[in-house]
From TrEMBL:
BP terms from Gene Ontology: methylation
Species for this entry: Saccharopolyspora cebuensis
Classification via NCBIfam families: PRK09485.1 (NF007020)
Molecular function GO labels: methyltransferase activity
Xref: SUPFAM superfamilies: Homocysteine S-methyltransferase
Record bears the keyword rRNA processing: no
The protein, known as: Homocysteine S-methyltransferase
Length: 293
């Protein structure tokens, strides 16, 4: 396997995989979210990945954010089949690269709260110990690593307890990882100083980039500079479109912000991985990639 390394200019990440799948008419109103399509419509996942590659992305992030043994079990899927579906997420993203050496696969590992499907990933502090969180994450990390992605994307992490658990869980897997927090201002979603979160992540040998995702573009800009100052390493940044999720109305509100206008600033501040998260379609990634190149 090629070694995933940063350097020589930023890599462009994809955008919101679920956003693109929904735009193509797929119903993701399910606790498994986009992971449901790993079993039901795998060809749709490949097509969505290809759309982001065609838009200029260098990295495809797998449809495993909300996938777990526990989540699949709730749908009547046994452990063996669940492991096969986790591996399929990596295989589908790899298929979408069409064998090009300039395209990479990141295996998405969402937080424990994502599996609850109740918005807990934006609060953190689940009442579990770091050891309990480690024991939740490690089995699926092992399966994803065995499937051969280029990097593990430990994403939308809301607090330090879960960051500690994930860092411990990736130890010894033989793959690099990036770790990105979801934030509110200069704090994690659980209210801890973001500087403390970056220091914790920077101390891990396996973590090659630290940063933020699934947050506002404004918050992302401050976080990039802070992460670079604290870690001295490349920063990963992929915020939402700028719209906000209304949990009561179950709809997005507000106006999208063109991320391309901010991408050059993030690059100048030390970002080595730049993309979009929720509500960022291939067109947004195309504009972002053009701004960087």
């Amino acid at each position: 396997m090629r070694r995933f390394e940063l350097g020589g200019g930023p890599l462009v990440l994809d955008g919101g995989l679920a956003t693109e799948l929904q735009a193509r008419g797929h119903d993701l109103g399910d606790a498994l979210w986009s992971a449901r399509l790993l079993a039901d419509e795998p060809e749709a996942v490949v097509a969505a990945h290809r759309a982001f590659f065609a838009a200029g992305a260098d990295v495809a992030t797998t449809a495993s954010y909300q996938a777990s043994f526990e989540g699949f079990a709730a749908r009547g899927i046994d452990r063996r089949e669940a492991a096969a579906l986790l591996r399929r997420g990596v295989e589908l993203a790899r298929e979408a690269t069409d064998g090009r050496p300039d395209r990479w696969v990141a295996a998405s590992v969402g937080p424990y709260g994502a599996v609850l499907a109740d918005g807990s990933e934006y609060r953190g502090r689940y009442g579990l110990t770091p050891r309990e969180l480690h024991d939740f994450h490690r089995p699926r990390l092992e399966v994803l690593a065995e499937a051969g992605p280029d990097v593990l994307a430990l994403e939308t992490v809301p607090d330090l307890d879960e960051a500690e658990a994930l860092i411990d869980a990736v130890t010894g897997l033989g793959l690099p990882a990036w770790l990105s927090f979801t934030i509110d201002g200069d704090r994690t979603r659980a209210g801890q100083p973001l500087a403390d979160a970056f220091r914790l992540a920077a101390a891990a040998e396996e973590v090659i980039a630290v940063g933020v995702n699934c947050c506002s573009p404004d918050d992302a800009t401050g976080a990039v500079a802070l992460a670079r100052e604290i870690t001295g390493a490349p920063v990963v940044v992929y915020p939402n479109s700028g719209e906000s999720w209304d949990a009561t109305a179950r709809d997005w509100t507000g106006t999208a912000v063109p991320l391309a206008e901010r991408a050059r600033r993030w690059r100048a501040d030390g970002a080595g991985l730049i993309g979009g998260c929720c509500r960022v379609p291939p067109a947004g990634i195309s504009a972002l990639a053009a701004a960087l190149r």
